[in-house]
Input
Amino acid sequence: ISLPTCWPPPRVQLHVVTLQRLTLFQLPAREEDRPDVRGHANDSNQYVKELSYNPPKVGRGLVFDPTLSVELHAIGGFNCVSFSLPPSVGTTRQLIRSATSNGRDATFTQKVHCVAAEPKETVLRLTVIDEDFGREAAYETVVLGVLREGYRVFHLRNMQGTRIESCSLLAHVSLSKQINAWVGEQDLVETIHKQKETITKQSRNLEAYKQKIRQLEALHAGTVYNPGSSDEDGAGEGNCDADNDSPPDNNTPDNDTPNNDFPDKEFIDINDGPTRPQQSSASD
Output
């Protein structure tokens, strides 16, 4: 029995969809609803309207300066959204600020590249964002692999999924290929994970060694400054001082008194050799 093939397989080349000259038309203002319920395709929206759209409102809502979000959602394989090629980061979402806008229509001059290893299993989502209120105003989704080159129109929807009347996004689409610099990235991720585990383990070992060093330093400090040891050392030093500073013998003449600064017998015998006959005559 053969094992199942691993999916997705490593891809040497990546599929690139470049969007540029993006133009937004007839964006609804805040608190304005313009659901497009015309045609037989929208008959299902008439049954439970609350699930599809809010009742149409005729009013003068506040317009806003829109921001366009370009993002990818992939079932598998590498994917990213980048402003340059080759992509330097693996982020799957980028924001584009409008170059000109009157609240209803807006243009976006920034070129954006959508890169995917499995384009037919990757969904492109274009979202118009009201950043001042932190809300999404409109969106549209499409499978990345079905886009063709040329100018394409994305009919935008409200956040309940119903198309907005006369609201669309025009974009120029171009296709290209990009060498996959992330081939074998799974092995790299596993290596990085192992290195992180090793670093964590070594950090714990270092902390244990530091604690042991502190204990040894404390033990050493207690031994050096032990009162009992100090007394014994002091007594020993006192005895040495007493031996070195002992008074001369009164029975010995002053001129024959050995130098206490040099108590070594051999040293005295060598340097004081000529005086020894005088000691013999004195004893006679």
DSSP finds four helices and eleven strands in the chain. The chain has two domains: 13-183, 184-219. The first strand starts at residue 13 and ends at 25. Confidence is low (pLDDT under 50) at residues 229-244, 262-271, 273-277, 279-284.
